[in-house]
Prior knowledge:
Helices cover 47% and strands 12% of the residues. The protein is of the alpha/beta class. The model is unreliable at 185-193 (pLDDT under 50).
Amino acid sequence: xxxxxxxxxxxxxxxxxxxxxxxxxxxxxxxxxxxxxxxxxxxxxxxxxxxxxxxxxxxxxxxxxxxxxxxxxxxxxxxxxxxxxxxxxxxxxxxxxxxxxxxxxxxxxxxxxxxxxxxxxxxxxxxxxxxxxxxxxxxxxxxxxxxxxxxxxxxxxxxxxxxxxxxxxxxxxxxxxxxxxxxxxxxxxxxxxxxxxxxxxxxxxxxxxxxxxxxxxxxxxxxxxxxxxxxxxxxxxxxxxxxxxxxxxxxxxxxxxxxxxxxxxxxxxxxxxxxxxxxxxxxxxxxxxxxxxxxxxxxxxxxxxxxxxxxxxxxxxxxxxxxxxxxxxxxxxxxxxxxxxxxxxxxxxxxxxxxxxxxxxxxxxxxxxxxxxxxxxxxxxxxxxxxxxxxxxxxxxxxxxxxxxxxxxxxxxxxxxxxxxxxxxxxxxxxxxxxxxxxxxxxxxxxxxxxxxxxxxxxxxxxxxxxxxxxxxxxxxxxxxxxxxxxxxxxxxxxxxxxxxxxxxxxxxxxxxxxxxxxxxxxxxxxxxxxxxxxxxxxxxxxxxxxxxxxxxxxxxxxxxxxxxxxxxxxxxxxxxxxxxxxxxxxxxxxxxxxxxxxxxxxxxxxxxxxxxxxxxxx
Length: 619
């Protein structure tokens, strides 16, 4: 009973953290109640359902319509990823619409052939914004990160076909401008051809570009030696200079610099051009006070702000702190709620008669099996990650509509199989001789107990995501920090998640067995050191790959791994947190149950749902 009371206190703290997160994040993004938020769903002219969050500041009325900004995430993200922008723009009096591009979040999935139609949904949002009575139709801007900026370019091309264009300002974040008269797709990969006819595709609109020094994808041009320039030298390239000179041949225009807004009269209107060069990487652009300040300054110059506030006066970071509290509370809830359910009549049989105790430190050949197993699994994980990208890209059945989850899923499954082999060999040639009892440590489990385990895992996951849906429904918030997000999702994501669940089960169940049944041994002086070590080894391969990639990039101006898309290293950012935390969660639940399968199934379910609700779904 003493243990249960302690656990119930932790459960109460986890709920308190989640509610503090919801309320605090809501107060920040509503500017203390001065901004109204609406969750939009509408059928667009292209015949697809579009999703967006609409932020309406109190100054925006029918009598005093306000300038408006449509903002978009990049590929494999969702509308909430733009929180730094919608928080800061809305508190300055702009009406803001943060969209889920088609195939993302709550918007309909489409085929690749439809991506360019209406700017992957961005231009649909612009047209809707222009119908709102509290929006100034003469001051509508668009901005997006990465492929969200590509959507902005496509929206401009669509807008150019109108007799009375709607877009009057464009801020491209982490993607390049349209330079030439080429009627095809904008040069968003920035490999500008040798022969070109420069032109001003943006007309009298004000346009800015945020081009990071270490952008993994964009801001490269063909060099005279046949190679290409590096992103940190972007401002010196012909394309950048032509852009700043409003589309003239760079040999004719003057030399221009970053962070200076250049003006020119075009068709009776004053247009501006500016390039910002923050010293950061591509995905950091949507988690950066520097980029937020540049965006604020750009739209202040283009439109004026109904509620002028200095660009350095930012509060979105406070929302991040509240979001982090929510993530911590979410993880604590998973463990404490699962343990609390062990004291119920239905699931009491899953509770261990006594808490699992750490085993003595391995010695002799046992030390070799312990450290050798950890190292072998880490090396296998690291050396298979990059090669699998090419294979999964070429061999993904249409049954799996999310390429990133398929890739990570196959990788996880292979690691699970490899770990299973290592565990079998360890048992066969070492542990069995030391009288390891598989039933006593939880590896062997009855069918009835397994069924109860699955039932409890489903209840825990449902309860945990119940908190997420409550946050979304009542407060329009979720639990997220940068690339790691736990969000509400549409029902179709559950069907998609079931397709990938077997891959993740194979990894997280086997990983839980490895962490708790085979490697729960004394390391150092304290019991927690073993947990920390296993958590570190869970994520070590991801940490090393990312470290090699970015130390090389920052030092030389170019990435280390060039055989695959740079997106694969970015996909590891959330895994650096998820994998160690999964080990900690599984250890805490195992201590109370001596059942490695409960935590393994819970981790697999939650992580699969997180992955499937935060990426691109492609028909």
